[in-house]
Amino acid sequence: MPRFSVAPAPTVLTLSLLSLPALALSGCARTHTADIGTPVSVSHPVGAYSSEFRWGNNAHVIYAVENASLTETGRMDFDLTVTVPPLGRVFGFVRMEVTCVAGGETSSAHTHERLGEAYDGTFEFPMWCAVPEEADLVAIEIDHHDEHLRFEGSVE
């Protein structure tokens, strides 16, 4: 009869901890939720290439959504500000997706600003989206660099 043994608890714990980075890097976006007007800090590694990234050497990109207001029937305007610290590489805005959720409806946000790449600085994007006329609560969602941000609040 074959004999089986169970690995001691520290070995099992070590194996479990080793599998966490693979799960964290599997493409699931982290979600950050805040009220409109409250900035959200998102940690990004510093360096031009992933080989330069060092554990704990991160800088914080700050996202803020402010001034959400109904400017005309069926339209809400708001300001999205992104403050990018020196990361040692360009920070892209090309693939940033912004949507508005209000009254059970979702619509894409629009801006006249060019969404390109930059090294660092503060970038302001005046934006607007379609919302139902009776909307009084809104969520503005941003998908950017494997992060999901959700800013919630009332519409003025």
Describe the protein.
- Keywords: Signal.
- This is Lipoprotein.
- It comes from Nocardiopsis exhalans.
- This protein has 156 residues and is mainly β.
- It is built from one helix and twelve strands, in the order αββββββββββββ.
- The strands form three sheets. The protein has a five-stranded mixed β-sheet with strand order 1-12-11-6-7, with no helix packed on it. A five-stranded antiparallel β-sheet has the order 2-3-4-10-8, with no helix packed on it.
- The relative contact order is 0.22.
User: Total number of β-strand segments?
Assistant: 12
Quote the average pLDDT.
83
Strand percentage, roughly? Answer: over 45%
Q: Which strands sit side by side, in order, in the main sheet?
A: 1-12-11-6-7
Are there runs of 5+ residues with pLDDT below 50, and where?
A: 1-27
The helix-strand sequence is: HEEEEEEEEEEEE
Q: Judging from the principal axes of the Cα atoms, what is the shape?
A: elongated
Q: Which sheet architecture does the biggest sheet show?
A: 5 strands, mixed
Radius of gyration: 21 Å
Distance between the termini: 75 Å
Number of helices: 1
Q: What's the helical proportion of residues?
A: 10-25%
User: What structural class do you assign from the helix and strand content?
Assistant: mainly beta
Secondary-structure topology with pairs:
Layout: H1 9-24, E1 30-35, E2 40-45, E3 58-72, E4 75-84, E5 91-92, E6 97-102, E7 105-108, E8 110-111, E9 117-118, E10 121-130, E11 137-144, E12 147-154
Parallel strand pairs: 1-12
Antiparallel strand pairs: 2-3, 3-4, 4-10, 5-9, 6-7, 6-11, 8-10, 11-12
